[in-house]
Design a protein that fits this description.
Elements: E1 7-10, E2 13-16, H1 18-39, H2 44-70, H3 72-77, H4 92-111, H5 119-140, H6 171-192, H7 200-217, E3 227-228, E4 231-232, H8 233-257
Antiparallel strand pairs: 1-2, 3-4
Helix pairs in contact: 1-2, 1-5, 2-4, 5-6, 5-7, 6-7, 7-8
Length: about 260
């Protein structure tokens, strides 16, 4: 089946669908963070300042991880292509690390607020933003899967980044489906009870997202960059997320059980 539109035409003007939907993903993430901050009754003005600063770190981190880890040889030979962001080349985990790093520094140094304060609202905002981001990759044909004979394989049209004329695993759809499940779990936990500790939802998101991403990586067939022990960089980062999420959740839960002095 054909489900993608790498180029969208409007009034005789052609747009790359990826760059129409990726800004939408950022807007959805900001809106979700806004309502999540309100739900936790945190101060809105510093929260939105933090969000905008983190978006800058997200953009830079997503680009740098692609440049230095996925295709370093190409960019070393063509350094000016680093600035050609309209041609794509962003990595979600790089964006996540960039956003967390800049957000952590800004919260501590400028806002004078403990960075862990924002983790639960961040967790609720990540699934909707990631869902739209994966929809962008579906439309552009990036992040495509391995060839498949199954009826649900996607056949990409000319102009997409994926191989043309062959049915491929719809890995962006896998990601979108898993993200809906993750978002539903996080929301149900948020609605059911008060967090047992600061960052509980974020650590749960790390475990769930990392598990799904690790599974989906085995179906990916696009350029995954260098691999170690047959696992891509994204697979190793997914494993690290799972481990960190489990350990952090356990440690924070034990800390919350200790009686106050």
């Amino acid at each position: 089946m054909v489900l993608v539109w790498p180029i969208i035409s409007f009034a005789n003007i052609e747009f790359a669908s990826y760059f129409l939907f990726m800004p939408l993903a950022f807007c959805v993430g900001v809106a979700a963070f806004y309502f999540s901050v309100r739900a936790y009754q945190l101060p809105l003005r510093p929260a939105m300042d933090l969000c905008l600063v983190s978006l800058v770190g997200c953009f830079i981190g997503a680009r740098l991880l692609h440049v230095f880890f996925e295709q370093p040889g190409f960019y070393f030979s063509h350094p000016t292509h680093v600035l050609r962001i309209w041609q794509g080349g962003f990595v979600f985990y790089g964006g996540l690390l960039g956003a967390l790093l800049t957000g952590w520094i800004y919260s501590r140094r400028v806002l004078k607020v403990a960075p862990l304060t924002w983790l639960n609202p961040v967790a609720l905002s990540l699934p909707p933003a990631y869902f739209v981001g994966r929809f962008a990759t579906l439309m552009s044909g990036s992040g495509y899967g391995r060839p498949t004979a199954n009826f649900f394989g996607i056949v990409y049209p000319p102009g997409s980044e994926a191989p043309v004329g062959v049915a491929l695993h719809p890995t962006p759809l896998y990601s979108m489906g898993w993200t809906i499940l993750v978002g539903g779990i996080l929301w149900s936990v948020h609605q059911r009870k008060e967090p047992r500790h600061t960052g509980e939802l974020f650590y749960l998101w790390m475990i769930l997202h990392g598990s799904g991403r690790l599974w989906i990586e085995f179906f990916r067939f696009d350029d995954r960059g260098p691999s170690w022990i047959t696992l891509s960089l994204s697979s190793w980062m997914s494993l690290a997320m799972i481990v960190i999420g489990v350990v952090a959740h356990f440690v924070m839960t034990q800390e919350s059980k200790r009686p106050s002095p």
